Amino acid sequence: MIRDVVIVGGGTAGWMTATYLNRTFGDRVTVTVVESDRVPTIGVGEATFSTIRHFFDHLGLAERDWMPHCSASYKLGIRYQDWRAVGEHFYHPFERLPEVDGVDLADWWLALDGDVRNFGDQCFVIPELCEQQRAPRSMDGILLGENTEDQRAQFPYAYHFDAALLAGFLTTLGKERGVRHVLDDVVSVEQDDRGWITHLVTSAHGEVRGDLFVDCTGFRGLLINKTFGERFMSFADVLPNNRAVALRVPQDMANRGIEPYTTATAAPAGWIWTIPLYGRIGTGYVYSDEFCDPEEAEATLRSFAAPDQPELEANHIRMRIGRNERSWVRNCVAIGLASGFVEPLESTGIFFIQHAIEQLVRNFPDQRWDPALADTYNTRVAEVIDGVREFLVMHYVAAARNDTPYWKATKTRAVPEALAERMRLWETVLPDERNIYPHFHGFESYSWRVVLIGLGAQPHRPRPALALADTTAARAALADVPRRARRLAAGLPGCHNYLAAVNS
Predict the structure, then answer these.
(1) Residue 232: beta bridge partners?
(2) CATH assignment at residue 71
(3) What is the C-alpha separation between 271 and 470, in angstroms, rounded?
(4) 283: left (phi over 0), alpha (psi -120 to 50) or beta
(5) Which of 342, 447, 493 is nearest to 106 (CA)?
(6) Quick one: three-class SS letters along 64-75?
(7) Cys-Cys crosslink for 287: which of 38, 261, 269, 347, Cβ 3.0 to 4.6 Å?
(8) Please, which residues have CB within 8 angstroms of residue 111's CB and are 6 or more apart in sequence?
(9) Assigned domain for 245 exists
(10) Per-residue pLDDT averaged across 219-233, rounded?
(11) Would you state the pLDDT for residue 154?
């Protein structure tokens, strides 16, 4: 049996992996985390998918157990600012589109209205909650949509949190639950005659032996790339953003209020994230160094987010965009940035970590090391990353923004062949579950519809069949959505007020 798992690297990826494996296998598997206190983690504010709740549920943690320790806040969706045109925005919410008479409401909207400025308000309730800074729970803890017909909808929120604080919280939790923590530098990685890892040699603790080694060393890829030489497949040809600069901006959030969404604001050479946490703002400029140098990027970000706070320290980050050809090689599994990364747009970093951990558990090996398990893991991880690549490329190709060299280049850059074919189809019909990327990648078909429409690239005309349909129910549904949204907003507390109660 596999008894000893050694995780190299801490941070969010390392400690999410450690606590999940510990909770899953208990004392039947020894989990050791080896991390250096001299290697910094990325550690910026993070935004997540709604599926992150499954991770915390698996650990047996309620929101009150972890949110106050991580400056956490709620996320109902993403607000895209200035991607279609300067001064315009749309939301990508955690909310499925309803159907009327078997037809998606987006199709009805296209047939009966078609003005992109009305789309979000006529088809979703969450944009109104975002505009009013509402929490997704009432003060007595009732979840948005709970015990109503809305419960069939997608889980209505995710979280923002400080990644460094979450890593620290999980470190304490993991050690309390039995994870072994070795704070030391790895001097060498030793292999046997087959090339399998036998042990690490550390500076102060000597040898650390294991059966399975998990590489959570970030973009360095200490085990998967530097030791095993696994080929890294760059996505720079279709996703050229390779740099970021980040700031932590203190704010009086009680007076300012907390927006329950991530904002992605189009900028001259990329886009700027704004993540409101409980106590501060996390912000950063994601850009391509083909169009902008680090000094210019930092100046743009400071002007945008903190013009009166020159003392704030900027964190410059080089991003490795792409994935390993295989993320499981011999007895080494790469998770997190060591496996792959497809820039921060749409908040997929934590999702990649969680998905990889779940796949590792599903395909956990025994002493036979059946290659089918590693093959399955590699296939699932690659499909997810490749699918997210397609989804993000669509953002840039479809965005109507076209006013700087960077944004002009998004219209002429190479596009994955399968995506190009799909986008030709979407000039006639909206995306649906039959014509989007065919493998699981975290995004449902409604997300492709919402983003395509929001960016200004919806079909030129609706489905002809709807011109012959009875539109009575559809018109009523489009009129009812904003009424329901206003009722919900009136009954839910402000996001800061709710979080203040959680943190008390």
Answers:
(1) 324
(2) 3.50.50.60
(3) 42
(4) beta
(5) 447
(6) HHHHHHCCCEEE
(7) 269
(8) 462, 463, 466, 467, 471, 474
(9) no
(10) 98
(11) 66
**Residue 93, in any domain of the structure:** yes
For the question of residue 75 being annotated catalytic, the response is yes
* β strands within 171-269, DSSP E: 180-183, 186-191, 197-202, 206-209, 212-215, 232-234, 243-250, 262-267
Alpha-carbon distance 144 to 150, whole Å?
A: 8
Contact 262, 47 (CB under 8 A): yes
For residue 37, how many other CB atoms are within 10 A of its CB? 9
Give mean pLDDT, residues 32-38: 93
From 75, 175, 226, 408, the catalytic residue: 75
Segments of 251-368 assigned E as strands: 262-267, 270-276, 280-287, 315-318, 322-324, 328-329, 332-334, 340-341
Structural domain count, the chain = 1
Q: Which domain holds residue 437?
A: 4-237+321-491
For residue 456, is it within any domain?
A: yes
262-267, strands of its sheet edge to edge:
89-93, 77-81, 262-267, 270-276, 280-287, 243-250, 315-318
Q: How many residues does the chain have?
A: 504
Q: 186-203 pLDDT, tens per residue?
A: 999 999 999 999 999 999
Q: How many CB atoms lie within 10 A of CB 295?
A: 10
pLDDT band at 147 (very low <50, low <70, confident <90, very high): very low
In 134-238, DSSP assigns E strands to 158-162, 180-183, 186-191, 197-202, 206-209, 212-215, 232-234
